[in-house]
């Protein structure tokens, strides 16, 4: 190798390196995602950090304020990352020098990828013991553990034990007693290694590239949190769009949240543990920092990761920079054609309450029209209060759909106020857009509801508007769908043609369609059942129409036959002979009357003159 690809003195080869293998992740998140943001928050400036195992290169960029050593088993990966780390050790954990200690050890890819198949096999506990040995007293360890009973396995179409690719060297089943299989077992292993578990975050929707890290203890205790509800639904709905799954992962994650089991079903966990400090050693500064309740991927490079932190009056929003510190405003990062996202708004408290969409779905499933009416009237009234004197709504309230509004008693509030419209929208269009989005989710999602199965999406929107106390007509719904297409096109960066195509697709959404986005066999089956019911209804209607037409045609034929028989009878002919002279006389009398009137008209005019 040359000094251009691997600077001299940076790469150490103690033995056991894998020369023809790469572990670097193919799927990467902007700025390294929540894992990199969490790692940057835990690492104080100037700290000595050991990054054990393959990680997103952006994570190393986030640790530019520290002295980083990488422990890798792949030599090509070491060459690729040589410019991002101060030192790289290529081989198994046994190759770490005994006289080196670190303030923070990060193993956010787990312990299995740390061990090289070309070197001495230490096993999971052996690798953990080696990493603990190089962690100085008072230091912190950030460790990932995959969940063998996670949501990703429950919805996968291919069983986990059917893997045949080259990377399936270790099979993470629950019968493997050398690996911990849940959070309690992980805490026991860390305690046995003389570490003190401090915090744990559940990783969704995938353990390797999570877009959301949620505090596991809060997930267990705050099952009704509208924030967690929206985050889990959004992360799981967007994390499985490229795969067909067995069932809807977003619905399963939300159900697990309200059952207090969202942390148990997480695809993986990130556990933070500390090594107790000796009397002569100071405590690592990172151990005293406030730990975030949640870290959320924004999806935009250069913006950072959204944080939810503890504040004096509850949770509050925050935004991380590239160095992991909390920063104020950032420039809006979406097209301003119809809507944009303003990071300046993410600095206040996170409103408490339950997500309006979940409450509406629950009431619809229970056929509770009274609760539906109360919630929708409250939602419509709250939107009306946000309108100006011209009846238009601006800012975040104009985009406040049922999936971004939380309800706490009689109080309604926008959950994420960073999404804003460029120009104010009419209040009736804003309401119709929120109701249309809910109606589309209700019908295409296959949810049971108390209304007629023959209603289309627009018709159900009109019905929901009536429950909300507003006369929403189909014209207003069409305007709302156009607004939805423009807003979605702006937020996703679609061009004019993409916006037109999206509007066409939204107008064509039917109750027999599966939900938009990733498809599950369960949802596809429900869509097939709805299509079969619709076909059965149309077939029955066609059969009834054909039977009606056949009966009418038979009656007409009978009438024609009767007329034909009567027209050929003797009485009919005699009647015609008797009636014909009378008809002719009547016609002659009418003609004579017209001629007499015409002759008298000039005489009357002369007399008048």
TrEMBL record:
GO molecular function term, any single one: methyltransferase activity
InterPro entries: SAM-dependent_MTases_sf
Keyword Methyltransferase in annotation: yes
Gene3D superfamilies cross-referenced by the UniProt entry: Vaccinia Virus protein VP39
Keyword terms: Methyltransferase, Transferase
Top-level lineage group: Bacteria
GO BP terms, alphabetized: methylation
Full protein name: SAM-dependent methyltransferase
Organism this protein belongs to: Micromonospora luteifusca
């Amino acid at each position: 190798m040359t000094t251009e690809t691997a600077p001299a003195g940076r790469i150490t080869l103690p033995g056991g390196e894998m020369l023809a293998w790469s572990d670097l992740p193919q799927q990467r998140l902007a700025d390294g995602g929540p894992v990199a943001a969490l790692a940057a928050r835990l690492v104080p400036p100037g700290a000595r950090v050991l990054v054990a195992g393959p990680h997103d290169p952006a994570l190393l960029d986030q640790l530019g304020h520290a002295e980083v050593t990488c422990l890798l088993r792949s030599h090509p990966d070491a060459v690729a990352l040589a410019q991002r780390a101060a030192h790289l050790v290529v081989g198994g954990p046994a190759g770490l020098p005994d006289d080196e200690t670190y303030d923070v050890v990060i193993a956010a890819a787990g312990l299995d990828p740390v061990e090289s198949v070309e070197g001495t096999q230490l096993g999971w506990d052996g690798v953990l013991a080696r990493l603990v040995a190089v962690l100085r007293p008072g230091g912190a360890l950030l460790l990932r553990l995959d969940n063998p009973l996670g949501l990703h396995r429950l919805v996968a179409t291919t069983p986990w034990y059917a893997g045949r690719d080259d990377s399936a060297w270790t099979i993470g089943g629950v019968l493997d007693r050398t690996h911990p299989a849940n959070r309690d077992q992980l805490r026991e292993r860390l305690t046995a290694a003389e570490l003190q578990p401090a915090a744990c975050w559940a990783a969704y929707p995938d353990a390797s590239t999570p877009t959301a890290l949620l505090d596991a203890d809060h997930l267990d205790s705050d099952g009704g949190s509208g924030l967690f509800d929206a985050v889990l639904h959004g992360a799981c709905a967007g994390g499985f769009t490229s795969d067909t799954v067995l069932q809807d992962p977003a619905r399963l994650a939300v159900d697990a949240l309200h059952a207090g089991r969202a942390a148990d079903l997480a695809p993986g966990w990130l556990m933070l543990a500390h090594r107790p400090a000796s009397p002569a050693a100071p405590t690592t500064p990172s151990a005293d920092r406030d730990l975030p309740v949640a870290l959320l991927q924004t999806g935009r490079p250069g913006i950072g990761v959204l944080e939810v932190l503890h504040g004096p009056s509850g949770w509050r929003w925050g935004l991380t920079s590239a160095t992991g510190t909390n920063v104020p405003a950032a420039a809006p990062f979406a097209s301003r054609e119809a809507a944009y996202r303003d990071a300046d708004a993410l600095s206040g408290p996170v409103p408490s309450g339950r997500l309006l969409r979940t409450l509406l779905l629950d009431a619809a499933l229970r056929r509770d029209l009274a609760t539906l009416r109360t919630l929708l009237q409250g939602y419509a009234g709250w939107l009306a209060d946000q309108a100006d004197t011209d009846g238009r709504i601006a800012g975040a309230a104009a985009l406040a759909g049922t999936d971004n509004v939380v309800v706490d008693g009689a109080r309604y509030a926008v959950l994420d106020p960073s999404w804003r419209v460029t120009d104010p929208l009419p209040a009736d269009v804003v309401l119709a857009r929120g109701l249309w989005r809910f109606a589309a989710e209700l019908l295409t999602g296959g949810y049971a509801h108390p209304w007629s199965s023959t209603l289309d999406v627009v018709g159900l929107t009109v019905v929901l508007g009536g429950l909300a106390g507003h006369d929403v007509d189909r014209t207003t719904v069409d305007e709302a769908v156009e607004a939805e297409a423009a807003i979605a096109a702006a937020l996703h960066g679609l061009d004019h043609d993409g916006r037109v195509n999206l509007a066409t697709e939204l107008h064509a959404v039917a109750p027999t369609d599966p939900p938009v986005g990733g498809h599950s066999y369960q949802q596809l089956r429900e869509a097939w059942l709805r299509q079969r019911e619709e076909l059965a209804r149309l077939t029955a209607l066609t059969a009834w129409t054909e039977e009606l037409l056949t009966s009418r045609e038979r009656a007409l034929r009978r009438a024609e036959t009767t007329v034909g028989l009567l027209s050929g009878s003797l009485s009919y002919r005699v009647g015609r002979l008797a009636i014909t002279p009378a008809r002719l006389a009547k016609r002659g009398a009418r003609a004579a009357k017209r001629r007499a009137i015409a002759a008298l008209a000039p005489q009357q005019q002369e007399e008048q003159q």
